[in-house]
Backbone:
């Protein structure tokens, strides 16, 4: 076949869909099942934002937005709901500069705390002087997106095999062999998009990368009384060496319930993904509840529920999107990759089908391995 894709999370499924739409023969392997909770693609929602302090990420998000709309057309359902995004802190200041550098002045504006309060009376802006509003922020419907990608992929001939674990890789000059418990698959290329399981799997092919599985947790909060107006996506954070530092965020409800999903946005502790699922940390719940008390005073600060996930961190928090001989590595996480998934699937399919350079210099393997 043309390609084997390892991992049917959002990036692996997007890669398989792109390969299938190009008429390439492809097997998509998932060791668990579509939508499982032992990685970073499960759950109902993710934030979508163009707001980044780095202009190249802004441009990448612009391309991703177009890819989301094409995916919705192919899937026949809404998968990205635009709510607008509201951002505060030193991180927001840097995002405003990057957005302006990318020509998006007409799609953003600065609001004073009073203007923001008038627009969003359910929110509190105490201690803030101004906030960045960006039109294109929204909510990715995560579970529906993964299911839609897998469905579109199989419609185009991709052989999806759930409950099949890839055990090892053997690259050759003319292809690659993927070992599974039920036999060996041979292909011209292998796309490894296995999330927190990728590092150990790539070692079977002699490729060692600093991909560390990290633990994260989110909690869900409901309004204490009536459902408030439609809230925007929200991030409040400072910068640390040009990166998003410890702060807080929420993903607003788009189903009419008013329930928000909130987290602290900081990388969690290192874990071994094979030991999942992990127990909810009450201390983390308490920190996020303080964010709700501070910014959403009309919400009950006691969480309705909490859930955990495992995502993959690189030392620089950038993705890995590159090809080494017959292996294509797609580690597009570091806690902020979901919003780019439909585009990243296209980029990884490009890498799998021809000998070309990494799509972006900052994502090359060479920054970690010679």
Residues:
């Amino acid at each position: 076949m043309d390609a084997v894709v390892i991992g049917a999370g959002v990036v692996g499924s997007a890669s398989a869909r792109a390969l299938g739409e190009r008429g390439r023969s492809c097997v998509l392997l998932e060791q668990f099942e579509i939508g499982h909770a032992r990685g970073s693609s499960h759950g109902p929602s993710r934030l979508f934002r163009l707001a980044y302090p780095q202009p190249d990420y802004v441009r990448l998000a612009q391309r991703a937005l177009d890819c989301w709309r094409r995916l919705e057309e192919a899937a026949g359902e809404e998968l990205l709901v635009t709510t607008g995004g509201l951002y505060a802190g030193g991180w927001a200041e840097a995002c405003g500069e990057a957005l302006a550098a990318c020509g998006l002045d007409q799609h953003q504006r600065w609001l004073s705390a009073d203007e923001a309060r008038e627009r969003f009376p359910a929110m509190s802006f105490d201690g803030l002087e101004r906030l960045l509003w960006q039109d294109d922020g929204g909510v990715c419907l995560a579970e529906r997106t993964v299911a839609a990608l897998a469905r579109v992929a199989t419609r185009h001939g991709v052989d999806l095999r759930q409950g099949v674990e890839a055990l090892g890789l053997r690259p050759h000059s003319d292809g690659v062999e993927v070992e599974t418990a039920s036999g060996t698959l041979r292909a011209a290329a292998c796309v490894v998009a296995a999330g927190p399981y990728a590092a150990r799997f790539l070692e079977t092919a002699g490729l060692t990368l600093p991909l560390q599985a990290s633990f994260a947790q989110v909690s869900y909060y409901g309004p204490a009384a009536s459902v408030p107006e439609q809230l925007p996506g929200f991030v409040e954070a400072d910068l640390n060496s040009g990166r998003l530092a410890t702060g807080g965020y929420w993903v607003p409800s788009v189903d009419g319930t008013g329930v928000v999903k909130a987290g602290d946005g900081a990388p969690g502790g290192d874990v071994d993904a094979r030991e999942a699922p992990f127990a909810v940390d009450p201390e983390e719940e308490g920190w996020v509840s303080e964010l709700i008390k501070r910014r959403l005073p009309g919400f009950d600060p006691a969480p309705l529920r909490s859930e955990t996930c495992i995502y993959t961190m690189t030392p620089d928090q950038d993705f890995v999107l590159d090809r080494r001989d017959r292996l294509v590595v797609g580690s597009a996480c570091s806690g902020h990759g979901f919003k780019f998934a439909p585009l990243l699937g296209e980029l990884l399919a490009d890498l799998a089908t021809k000998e070309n350079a990494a799509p972006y210099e900052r994502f090359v393997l060479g920054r970690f391995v010679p």
